[in-house]
Amino acid sequence: MKKPNMNEARKRHNNSEVKYTSYSVNTTKFGKGKKYYVRTYGCQMNEHDSEKIVGMLESVGYKKSEDIESSDIVILNTCAIRENAHDKVFGFLGVLKHIKDTTNPNLLVGICGCMAQEEVVVNEILKKYRYVDFVCGTHNLDNLLNIIESKIQTNNQTIEVLSYEGDIVENIPVVRESKYSAWVDIIYGCDKFCTYCIVPYTRGSQRSRKKEDIIDEVKKLKESGYKEITLLGQNVNAYGKDIYDDYNLANLLKDVSATGIDRVRFVTSHPWDFTEEMVDVIAENDNIMPYIHLPLQSGSNRILKLMNRRYTKEDYLKLYDSIRSKVKNSSITTDIIVGFPGESEEDFEETLDVVNKCKFDGAFTFAFSPRENTPAALMKETVSEEVKMDRLHRLNEVVNKYSNEANKKMNNKIVKCLVTSLSDKDKNKVCGYTENMKLVNIEGDKSLIGKIVNVKITDTKSFSLDGIYVK
Ligand code: 5AD
Ligand code: SF4
What pTM, to 2 d.p., does this model score? Predict the structure, then answer.
């Protein structure tokens, strides 16, 4: 058994290697005739990791199951970013226990992802959740099949979590959710250590993939019909810093754009690492989409400092204005935390002030949630739950007003959409995303799926647009 250790996770090792050969497809096909169910929590990185989990499971014969009751293995790919992510996973584990106790006693239950990297979580699983069959950390995901096989052979609860980052393993099989839009990892981990954030501990130090491997992957995706790729990282703007002296995200964006793939996206951006050169590359290349997710977190310089965000409100606004003025039809969204320890009403009003200045296209807003072993968890919480909820509510009202306004500006325009699937709302319609990442429910038939088409916007809502396909 290997358990996580948060003190070890704090250290930076920086000796990861790129491995092209260490992942070997297990030849025993121990999943033949069996079914899997994978549930994903959290960010896009996790969504893509789940595509790797599925790729590995299918490589040994497992097939997808639509429901848990008829599955042989259920894997939860977890998120640790806030307490409510924990609660959802532990709640679902209760459901799985019931299924194991009643209808499906042979069901294997496994936990992967960021929660697997947390010492407290693993200790709790060892004490209270003995029916969890295996735990596999983020740093050794490539070893998942061996962990499952060992569980099957020994029938012991199998826990394998490394506290330090593993190597970059390039050839893990992937089964992608979409045939048109693909995730492409460019950098793993994070070295920013924002004081509230658990990611630098659960995902380790920042490690960039080699540019050749990324560009190769994009070329192959394009050849197999993909229209859009999204470059992924906790902080994509730090790309290259750990392995190159003179090659950064701006260079990578240019090279990826030059592959000729229709659409290039990237998430998530950190304002501190976002250079003017990057803004220029986004502005100058038509296939780099004008959508930027640029987390603000707080508008108060005092709180930004306590958060260790490394920029001021003024720096943020300068970058924001530069993007808005250079990138045509840009849309910018953000993340904001309210109720950080020490946040006063004045600090919160500074945040509202930035929101009023920026008029974001959208914002993900959160109440501060202390995370195990992070510096902010040791700070004295000064904002009551009630005040946090009140600020969240007030913030959301302002945020929604601006996202509505931004959507309204698109009314009657003809825009390009990549149609990705049938609409969730109305199965007689399809849906897709505009270049600036607005979801559109489109009147049009399913032959449009997978194509980039012109759509006339006919109505706008808070979180989506309606449109009609035009030739
Ligand atoms: N509490 C609340 N929100 C958090 N986030 C990260 N850590 C915390 C925390 N401890 C938010 C940040 C980040 C987003 C992914 O989640 O806004 O950008
Ligand atoms: Fe967390 Fe900050 Fe890194 Fe984002 S940049 S993953 S918020 S530490």
Answer: 0.95
